[in-house]
Design brief:
7-stranded antiparallel beta sheet, disordered C terminus, Hypothetical protein af1432, 8% strand, alpha+beta, disordered N terminus, Beta-Lactamase, rod-shaped
């Protein structure tokens, strides 16, 4: 048996819990009735036994008095006196399969018995030698009679036999008849009668209890199901409303992102295609990085492409004379162009302050701020090194440099794929994270096909559409 599967079971509705509790209650009621019935049966059995003992003793006393009045001498088997006693014994009927018999007080041999005429062999029974339990003492019937010191006419009562054959026996000394009177009642028969009385009562109690539990359970479950159904309907409507609002918020957020990316594109006619390529390169690098056994969150893989579109948003704050300069930048202009990381970080931070904490904006902000940091700490704007640089920025840094090397600029011609790869490989451990460079190596053919200088119109429209609706 799989215990873990049992304990992993969950209740999905309160009505199910009520039904289970009701079943437990019914089981508990049945167990309680069985235990209570057994206890009551035991107590009533003891009361009934005591009553039978009292009745048996009274019968023995009264019947003994009658016999002593009618008979005044020793009774011999087969005589007229014996016939009278036998006839008396045969006419007496007692409850609980009871009967009366008479035995010789000296030998203990049976003299009279209700079945003696039909079963003459009973005459050989020495009933006086049978042992009875009198107040915890085990004695033969004859010894019990002899042990009575005073009031010998007062009967003694004890238990004879065991189990289903247990009998309550009252013994009276018949005095001058030199015989003893024995009054028997079957103990088991009385207990059976008690059981027959209590069993229907217990059954009725169980049925009534179960009926009450089932009725209250059904009523409770019906009420709960009604409210559960209403609550489920409300929850479904609420979920739909939340989904609509979430889609609306995501659409608004991504529209802002798309607008910001277009704003960056408006400053540089090549930026639009550059953003499409960077998005593709970053996504592929993140997947390849994971395939090499590196730890990277699924959220980062899903969102890094869209977030990378904003990596150069800060260039909107760079003057045209620097941003659009056809030649190489001097040292002062280089300082100005490097401020685009800080401008972009502050811009996205301001948006996040208004929209509230957002994982995607945080990702875009760290890419914007740190994608020019270098593995050896020589980058800008903060001089971070190694794994101090967020993984997202380390991935976009490789994608950005590869695309810049393969792209045409007013001041340079595009490099070949092999030359661009050689520069990046040489920069592993200095400029770039070696693990990200290893991921790039796995994508050599794919990147070469993508870095043709432009993406066809159909593919570009597809990428821009994904940018506008991604979550």
């Amino acid at each position: 048996m799989n215990f873990s599967s049992i304990f992993s079971f969950r209740l999905t509705k309160n009505s199910h819990l009520i039904e289970i509790l009701a079943s437990i209650q019914i089981l508990g009621l049945a167990i309680a009735l069985v235990c209570a019935g057994g206890w009551i049966k035991l107590k009533i059995g003891l009361i009934v036994r005591q009553q039978i003992i009292s009745d048996n003793t009274l019968i023995a006393e009264q019947l003994g008095n009658v016999i002593r009045l009618t008979q005044s001498a020793r009774v011999e088997y087969g005589t007229e006196a014996w016939n009278e006693l036998q006839f008396l014994v045969e006419r007496i009927e007692l409850p609980n399969q009871g009967f009366v018999c008479i035995a010789d007080r000296i030998s203990g041999q049976l003299l009279c018995h209700p079945d003696l005429r039909n079963k003459p062999a009973l005459r050989q029974s020495i009933v006086g030698k049978h042992s009875i339990d009198v107040d915890g003492s085990r004695l033969t019937i004859l010894d019990a009679i002899r042990s009575v010191k005073t009031n010998r006419e007062k009967p003694i009562t004890g238990l004879l036999g065991s189990g289903r054959a247990l009998e309550i026996v009252s013994v009276a000394d018949l005095g001058a008849l030199e015989a003893i009177l024995l009054v028997h009642q079957n103990e088991a028969a009385s207990q059976t009668a008690v059981g027959r009385l209590l069993t229907p009562m217990g059954f009725v109690g169980l049925v009534v209890g179960m009926a009450l539990i089932v009725f209250t359970t059904k009523t409770t479950v019906a009420v709960l199901k009604r409210y559960e159904n209403e609550l489920a309907a409300l929850n479904r409507n609420l979920e739909k409303l939340v989904q609509v609002r979430t889609r609306s918020l995501m659409k608004t957020r991504d529209s802002v992102i798309f607008g910001l990316a277009k704003l960056s594109e408006s400053r540089d006619t090549d930026t639009g295609e550059h953003l499409d390529r960077i998005r593709y390169y970053s996504t592929q690098l993140a997947r390849s990085y994971q395939q090499l056994g590196n730890v990277i969150s699924p959220e980062l893989i899903d969102q890094i492409g869209l977030a990378s579109s904003l990596h150069d948003i800060g260039k909107v704050g760079v003057p045209d004379r620097v941003l659009l300069k056809p030649g190489k930048l001097n040292s002062g202009e280089r300082v100005v162009i490097e401020t685009h990381t800080l401008v972009g970080e502050r811009c996205l931070e301001a948006i996040e302050d208004h929209l509230g904490q957002d994982g995607f904006l945080s990702l875009a902000k760290e890419i914007c701020a740190y994608h020019h940091e270098k593995w050896d700490g020589s980058g800008y704007p903060y001089g971070l090194e190694g794994e101090q640089i967020p993984l997202s920025a380390r991935i976009v840094a490789v994608a950005d440099v590869y695309d810049a090397l393969r792209s045409r600029r007013p001041y340079k011609e595009p490099m070949t794929h092999e030359a661009a790869f050689d520069i990046i490989l040489e920069g592993a451990g200095k400029h770039f994270d070696p693990s990200v460079v290893a991921a790039l190596i796995q994508l050599s053919t794919d990147f070469e096909e993508r870095s043709t200088g432009s993406i066809d119109l159909k593919e570009r429209l597809k990428l821009q559409l994904e940018m506008a609706v991604s979550i």
